[in-house]
Give the backbone structure.
Amino acid sequence: MTGTRKGHGVRKGRTVAAGLVVLAVTAGCKTITITPNGGLPSASSTATATAPERAEALPARTADKAPPGRARASKAPRRAVKPVLAPGDRSHRVRELQARLAQLSLFRRKPTGFYGRQTATAVSAFQGRCGLRRTGTLDRASWHALHARTRPPTRAEMYPRPKKKTRKPPVRRDPRCMTGRVLCISKRSNSLAWMVDGKVRSAMDVRFGAQYTPTREGTFTITFKSRHHVSSIYHTPMPYAMFFSGGQAVHYSADFAARGYSGASHGCVNVRDSNKVATLFHQVKPGDKVVIYK
C-alpha cells in the first residue's frame, strides 16, 4: 500500500507540473522552474523572474505617452487677426476713425483720411484706455470698442470746411510817414515801423510813458545816438538809445521785455525786442524823421 501511494503521489505531482508548463506557455509567460517542493517555484526564483519583467515593463509604459511639451507643440499656430486699419492707409474709413477719436479728445486735428503717426498715437492711447494691447494698429477688438464709445460722425466732422482767412485791416499810417526815412510810431497800435519812402523795412512792439511822464507827440528828428547810454536822471540803462526830443529816446528796455505792458517808461519809446532794436540802431542816422501819433 505504501509503494502504491508513493507512486501515485509522484505521478500526481508530474501531472500538475506538466499542467503548469502548458499554462505558462499558453499565457505567454516565462518558463517556470519546477522544484521538488510540490512543483512550485521557490521564493528566490520568483524574485529573479519578476524583477526583469518590471524593468522591461517600465520603459514600455513611458514610451506609450508622449511628453506634454511635444503634444502642445504639435498644435497648429493661431492665425493672426488682420488689422482693420494700419499706418499708411488712406480711405474714408480712416476719416471716420479720426472723427471718432476726436470725439474722445484723442485726435486734435481735422480728419485727413491718412493713417499717419498722429493717428497711430491716438489709437494707441485709446487702446491703453480700454485695456487693450497698445499697438497703434486698429484691430477688430479696438474698432468694436471705439464704436461702442462713440457716435457715428457727421459729414461735417469728417470733411470740415477750411476756415476763411480773415484779412487784417491795413494799418493806418500817418501821411507824414510816407516820404523819406521815418520812424513811424503809433500809440494806438503800440507799434514802431521803420519806413523808407513809404515802405516798411521793419516793425516792432513799443510802449510809452506813464500818465505823469507822457511821450510827446508830433514830428521830430534824431539828434544823436548812444549805444550804451545810462539815464542821468533815473540812472537806468538805455541801450541803443536814439534821442529825438530832449531826454526822450527810442531804446531797448529790459523791463518791457520782462513785464510787458504792465509797466511804462518815463517818456521814452521802449522796445522789447533787443535784436530788432539793435538792427534799427545801425540803420537809423541822425537827422532821420520821427513821427509819433495816436
Remarks:
- The chain is about 35% helix and 20% strand.
- The two ends are 162 Å apart (CA to CA).
- The chain has a mean pLDDT of 81.
- The CA atoms of residues 103 and 293 lie 50 Å apart.
